[in-house]
Structures are given as structure tokens and as C-alpha cells.
Amino acid sequence: MEYFKKILRFAKPYKKYGFLNIFFNILYALFSALSFAALIPMLNVLFDKTKQLTEPPVFQGIGKAKDYFMDYMNYQVTQYSGDDQMKGLVLVIGLVLTLFLLKNVFNYLAMYFITFLRNGVLKDIRNKMYQKITELPISYYSEKRKGDVIARITSDVLEIQHSFLSVLELIVREPLTILFTIIVMFLISVKLTLFVFIFIPVAGALISRIGKSLKKKSDRVQKEQGEFLSIVEETLGGLRVIKAFNAESRFYKTFKSSTDRFFRFSNTLLNRQNLASPTGEFLGILVIGVLLWFGGKMVLVDETLDAASFIAYMGLAYNILTPAKAISKASYGVKKGNAAAERVLEVLETENPIVDTSDALEKTDFKNGITLDNISFRYEDEYVLKNFELTVPKGHTVALVGQSGSGKSTIANLVTRFYDVNEGEISIDGINIKDLTKKSLRNLMGLVTQDSILFNDTVKSNISMGKENASEQEIIAAAKIANAHDFIMELPEGYDTNIGDSGNKLSGGQKQRLSIARAVLKNPPIMILDEATSALDTESERLVQDALEKMMRNRTSIVIAHRLSTIQNADSIVVLQKGEIVEQGSHAELLSKKGVYKKLVEMQSLAS
Fold first, then answer.
1. Contact 295, 313 (CB under 8 A)
2. What are the strands of the beta sheet with 445-448, ordered from one edge?
3. H-run or E-run covering 173
4. Local structure of residue 192 (DSSP, 8 states)
5. Of 76, 165, 233, 289, whose CA is between 20 and 30 Å from 65?
6. Are 69 and 57 in contact (CB under 8 A)?
7. Are 579 and 406 in contact (CB under 8 A)?
8. Cα pseudo-dihedral 492, 497, 500, 502, rounded to 10
9. What 3-state DSSP class applies to 181?
10. How is the chain split among helix, strand and coil, in percent rounded to 5?
11. Rounded CA gap, 195 and 287, in Å?
12. The Cα angle at residue 520 between residues 515 and 525, in degrees rounded to 5
């Protein structure tokens, strides 16, 4: 129930719908019992057992409630019908129909209002999940598979709606239906009603025994669903490579083994769950059989109960079966919902290590420079950067070069605060970036990465991502600086052309120039370029490099370079090796030293 309580927090904004649901459920339960009790006078009229009463009866206390109700109905039938019994029959049939109609109207209204609560909670949990997914640091997703996260925000949240929130419908209606029905049954016959209480503990014990392993089995199903969604996500992302290496059959085998496990786990879970309904129904019919024998004896032998009351009583006894079965199924629902809620709450309750401090500053300008003061950082056990120091004065371009794994991209991740340093500090204008709000820090920076990350939207929407209210003129101006305007105008709908999933309708160079246009439009004082030209052909590189140079004018830039020819004009070049600076200086200075940098330049010259 702990998870259930946590999920119910999301129901607070919709509590008025919950109260309306409870109100109409109470009326439904009451009229459900009364509608069966109203069968008694109808049967009495049919069997000609109605007493002719010309004076209204007097209520003599709750113990005589049944007699009062019967006498009152007999009085009304007498008044209405006189000597015509068909008139009396029409009256009691009308009463039964009215009660059943009201019962169903109240049932509909109860379900109508709970719908707003259920769907509202579903919406809010999904929104909260998405917000949390975007807030969590990048490091979180290096440990989690994307498909598993997708499964949690889709199928797990839906499972919560089907299981936990469906219990809300039953939590008032079914117990009250049973309660009101039992009260009416007691009024008809105390002796006969005691038999009903044999059913409840026996059924409860059996159903509890069946349901104990449901949460564990449900958890396995949901984890496996996340597994095959991950495989689908990876397959779609790497389809070119899969086809190029004829690896379709290998990935199919992996996917098939996952769906086979899902098939087995789902069968076990559903077969166990489906056992509840027939078990409950058989136990109910068993009790009905005993009641028929015992009640029949009271009617035929003992003559302590009239036939009309006994038939109505049997209807009431059967009326208990449906809510009892619903409650037993709901107990399964809670166990299944527990597994789903645990997975959803695991994401929602994950602590974000990169958060704004309570007194974080909003920094809107950039005056002096960036300082990396004696920083050390590790992703897991080994340090990627050790006692690293670097100063980037305002207006300067600093290039970071070195072999793969030397820590270049890590510096970009730390300056943008995608990760926090383990030791030392990074400051902007002398203020530790941990003391700035993440939003204001990232507003000062533009990022162009090696992989052009674009979205399935129009050219205009992709460029204006960093400045939502940008005018068309601003977007075109940014595209011109990025050497992108000409090719955009050649697209079918120009700036309104949809570029497809990840911008796949464009070439690598075109995608990269859109990424640059996006950074230009944001117009930040600090620019971070993470190997922005390394994946391009020579012609595209020339256009992109020209765009980058135009963009970097009058800006502070940190350039992570793979191709050394692109950073020869940098104010300072920093050569990294295993997370430490081994050389630093201008292009000419480093060549004259004849050290690591000169070797890297010569190696690239030979390679080209």
C-alpha cells in the first residue's frame, strides 16, 4: 500500500471528482440493494399473497423494518389497485424498474466522474515523468537503457491507471454494495444470512494464496517489456549499420528471445490472474447451492420464510457475488500495480546530483573569462582529468587537441555543467558555476557537437530552438551566417520543410550548418565546438569551417578539434594526453617546440 499512497498524491487536484464518485457510488450501492428488495411485493402480487390494508402501517423500530416495508407496500398496492390486481402488478413493476433505472444512472455518474480523476492522474504522472527525464543528468542515461525509460513512461504508467486507479472505483462502491445488501438480507432472515459469512473468509484465504506471487511475476513482465523496447530503439537508431553488416538475423534472434521470455512471463502472470474469477465464482455458486437447500427447507418444511422473500433473498445473495469478484480482482490489480508503481517512482524519486543551490545567481552577462582551477574528474573509477588548469580570457579562442580519450570532450561536458567536477572548481568571471542557475549558465553558451542533433520538425523550428520568439528575419540572418540559407531555399518548402527523424532528409554538412545556425541565433557570448567538422567531407568542411569562423568572431570559444588544420588561428592551443596538459601555445610556438603537437600535425598530413 506504500506505493498506492504515493500515487494517490497525484489525485489531490482531482479530489472533487473523487468525492462526487463516492457520493454516487453510495447511492448506487443503496439502490442496488433496494432494487432486489422491491421484488418481494411484486412476487407477492403475482402469487396473490398481498394482504389488503386500508390503514397506513406504523413504524415500530428498525427490528420491524421488513414488516413495515411489506405492510406499507401492501397498503399502497391496495390503495392504487382496489380489486384490480393487474393495477397493483403495474405499480410494483414500475417501482422495480424505477429503482433499477436509478441504480444504473448513479453507476454511470460515478464512473463518469472517476474518469476525470483517472485520466488526470495518468496525465500528471506522465508530465512529471517527462519533466524528470529531462531534468536528470546525462550520467543517468549512461546506466539506463532508453527503451526501459520509454516502457516506464508508457506501459508502466498505463498499468497504474488500469490497476491502482481502477481500485478507486471499487474502494467505495463494492464494499457498500455488499454492506447494504447484507443489511437487507438480515432484515429478511438473520439465520439464512449467517451462511453468507462462510463464503467471505474462505474465498479471501484462497484468493490471497493465489495472488502472493503476482507482484514478482508482473515485475518480470514489465522489465522484459523495457528490454525489447530498448532493442527496437537501438535497431532503428543503427539500421544502416545493421543492414551494411547483414546483421538483421542476429538482431532478430535477440529480439525474438526477448519476446519469447515476455510470452512466457505474460502467460504465467495472466493464468495466475485469471484463476481469481472462476475460483470466486465457483465458491459463490457453492454458497448459493447451500442457501437454496437451507432456504428451501425454511420455506417448504419449517414455513418460517415466505416464497417471495426467499426468491428476493436469492437475488440479493447473487448480488453480493459480483462485487466480491470485483474486490478479488482488484486485489490482483494492486499487486500488479505495485510492480509498475515501483518502476515509475524509481525514476520520479531519483535524486538529481546537479541542482541549483537555494541562493543560485542569475548571470546574464560575461565580462572577463572562464577559469578551470585544478579540476579532477572521473566517470567511474579512473580519473579522466587530473589537476587540470586552464584560463580562457574573454574574446579568445582556445583549442583543445589530443588523441581520443585524452579528456577533450569531458571539458565541454564540465563547462556546460552536464557533469560536476569531483575536485577543484570551474568559474565564470570569478563565480563558481555551481553558484549559478543552470539555466543562466547555459544561456551564456552555444554548443555545436560532432553529431548534429536535430529534431523531426521544420527547418525554422530547429534553428529557433534556443530563441523561441525569433522573427523570420533573425532566423534567415542566422542561416546566412551558417552558410545554410542557400540550400534551405532549395528545399521543397524552404524554411517550413520538415527535415525528418534526426534530420535524415539532409546531408551531414547541411545538418551541421543548421546546428551552427541554431547556435548563431541564440547569440551566446561563449561558444563550445565539440569536433564540429570531424565527420564531414572536404567540401562540406570548407563551408562549415567558414560558418564557424564567422560565428566565432567577437566571441569566447572553446574548440575541441580533431582536424588540426581547422584551429591554426586559435589564440591558444592546449595539447592533452591522458587528462593532463602536455603542451600549450599558439600554432607556430607549438610547431617550433617539435613536441607532441608537431607529431600530431605530421601524422594528419601523412594521413591526408
1. yes
2. 445-448, 526-530, 556-560, 397-402, 572-577, 580-585
3. helix 157-188
4. H
5. 289
6. no
7. yes
8. 120
9. helix
10. 65, 10, 20
11. 8
12. 125
Cα–Cα distance measured from residue 107 to residue 25, given in angstroms and rounded to the nearest whole number: 7
Beta-carbon count within 10 A of 568 CB:
14
Domain boundaries, the chain: 2-214+269-348, 357-444+560-608
Residue 397's φ and ψ, nearest 5 degrees, are -110, 120
Closest by CA position to 354, among listed 92, 574, 526, 137: 137
Give the chain's length. 608
Task: Look up the CATH architecture of domain 357-444+560-608.
Answer: 3-Layer(aba) Sandwich (3.40)
The torsion region of residue 572 among left (phi > 0), alpha (psi -120 to 50) and beta comes to beta
Query: How is residue 461 written as a grid cell?
Result: 523550428
pLDDT tens per residue across span 492-511: 899 999 988 878 888 888 88
Please count the other Cβ atoms lying within 10 Å of the Cβ belonging to residue 550: 14
Cell 528471445 -> residue: 257
Question: Rounded to whole angstroms, how far apart are CA atoms 523 and 478?
Answer: 9
Q: Find where cell 592546449 sits.
A: 574
d(CA 415, CA 409): 10
238-271: per-residue pLDDT in tens?
Answer: 776 677 667 788 888 888 888 888 888 888 877 7
Q: In sequence order, what are the residues at sequence separation of 6 or more whose Cβ sits closer than 8 angstroms to the Cβ of residue 455?
A: 461, 462, 465, 502, 503
Residue 470 identity (one-letter amino acid): A
Q: Which CATH number fits domain 2-214+269-348: 3.90.25.10, 1.10.10.10, 1.20.1560.10, 3.30.450.40?
A: 1.20.1560.10
Q: Which DSSP letter does residue 168 get?
A: H
Name which of 348, 277, 330 is nearest 1 in CA terms: 330
Cell of 118: 483517472
pLDDT band of residue 565 (cuts 50, 70, 90) is low
Would you state the torsion angle of the CA atoms of residues 461, 466, 469, 471, taken in this order, to the nearest 10 degrees?
-70
pLDDT of 382 strictly over 70: yes
Rounded Cα distance between 295 and 281, Å, is: 20
Nearest CA-CA partner of 114 in 122, 102, 103, 126: 122
Any idea which residue has 577559469 for its cell? 371
- pLDDT the model gives residue 74: 65
pTM of the model: 0.72
Alpha helices (H) along 392-495:
408-415, 438-443, 459-463, 472-481, 485-489
- What is the enclosing helix (H) or strand (E) of 304? none
* Alpha-carbon dihedral angle through residues 229, 230, 231, 235, given to the nearest 10 degrees: 100
DSSP-assigned states of every residue in 1-68: -HHHHHHHGGGGGGHHHHHHHHHHHHHHHHHHHHHHHTHHHHHHHHTT------S------GGGHHHH
The pLDDT of residue 50 is: 53
The 3-state secondary structure of 209-276 reads HHHCCHHHHHHHHHHHHHHHHHHHHHHHHCHHHHHHCCCHHHHHHHHHHHHHHHHHHHHHHHHHHHCH
